[in-house]
Fold this protein.
Amino acid sequence: MQRIPISSVFWGLAVLAAGALLVFVTLNPGEPPHPQPGHTQLPVADEVRGGAIELPVATHAERFDLDDYEGQYVWLYFGYTSCPDACPTGLGWISGALNQLPDDLRGQVNGVLISVDPERDSRNHLANYVGHFHEAIHAATGPEEQVHAAAQNYGVFFERAETDSAMGYVIDHSSSTYLVGPNGELLEIYPHGTSSAQLLESLKAHMNAESEDE
C-alpha cells in the first residue's frame, strides 16, 4: 500500500481547517472565533513603511508585483499555509469582506497572502490553499531574504520555532492585516481579530475620503 507523506497529511488538515473556518465566517459575520493554540502571535513593529513588494512566486501570474494592483485596493496578510490558527482566521475575515462587497466594488479589491514559509509553500500549495477562501485572494512568496525584506517594510516579525510534532516546525509571526490603496500606499493596519464587517466599513471610509479629495 502506498504511504502518504506525513507533511501532506498535515497540509491537507490545514486546508480542511481553512474550509471549515470559511463556512463559519460566511454564516457568522460577527465576532471572530478564538483560535486554538498553535504558535505565538508576534506584534507589529512600531515603525511601518509599507511600499513595493516583488516576489518570484505567485499564484495568479508569473511573478508577484504589488504595483500590478495599481488602481485597486488590497488587503495584505503575511502568513503561511501550514499555520494552525491565525492565518485561516485572518484570511477567513478577508474572504468574508470580499463576499460582502457591493456589486459596484467587485473587481476593485483583492486579498493577498505573502507566505513567510517558502520552504514548504510551493506555487501549487499556495494556489490550492487560497482557493479555499476566495477567487480574489492571491498568494506569493520567494527566497527567504526577499520575504524578510518585504516583511520588514510592513513591520512584520516572523521566526521559525521547532516543535515535537510531525510538522517539524511552526512559524511565529505577526498577524495583522494591511490595507494598501490604489496608489500602493499603506492606508491602515488592522489587528488580528478584525471582522469582515469592520474591514469593509474601513475600506468604504477610505474610498469615500478619496472621492472627496478628487
About this structure: Helices lie at 6-27, 86-99, 123-131, 144-153, 196-213. The chain has a mean pLDDT of 83. The chain has five helices and eleven strands. The CA atoms of residues 144 and 178 lie 21 Å apart.
